[in-house]
Amino acid sequence: MEANHIYVYLFDGYSDWEIGYLMPELRQDNRYTVLTVSDTGADVVSMGGMKVSVDASLADINLMNMKLLILVGGQMWEENKKDLMDLDSVIYNIYQRKLPIAAICGATLYLAHKGMLDQVQHTSNALFYMQGLVPSYQGEGNYVNELSVKGDNIITATGIAPLEFTKEIMKELDFNEEYINRWYQLFKYGIFPSA
To answer: Which of 60, 82, 93, 140 makes an SS bond possible with 56, Cβ 3.0 to 4.6 Å?
Structure first.
């Protein structure tokens, strides 16, 4: 079975703009099946007030056909109060199998809490942000002050870089390099590709 499912973990209050560029690109690529997931499969409401009809629950994630898991930012990660045992189990299995995970903004805190950023190059909103909100964080030596970074099987991005996050994910998913470059020039700089 070819791994072609992309799972996007959503929750009430997720930062909708952080995947605004990404979702259309993923859904237009017929190589992949894109599924939104929440803890129980219940619908969620984004920080911007958009109600999302979720496709599946965390329990429905099938690691045998998973190509990528995407974790979107939101205040939930900073508060670190929510019981995430179901997500912990899924993430642990994904991490152990060395399957790709992409996290943006506050979601990087979750990976830092789990020690998953200590040994790989990564970024976040700022190094002091990581150190201040994750006392157990020991990845300072691997922190890269860039908008988006790919280290081993983990893609991370700052919350102000939805374009760069999308670009790294497109590269991970083997999108055409010329297309990626033209797409990025268009949305980042307003440069329309010549014929």
So the answer is: 60
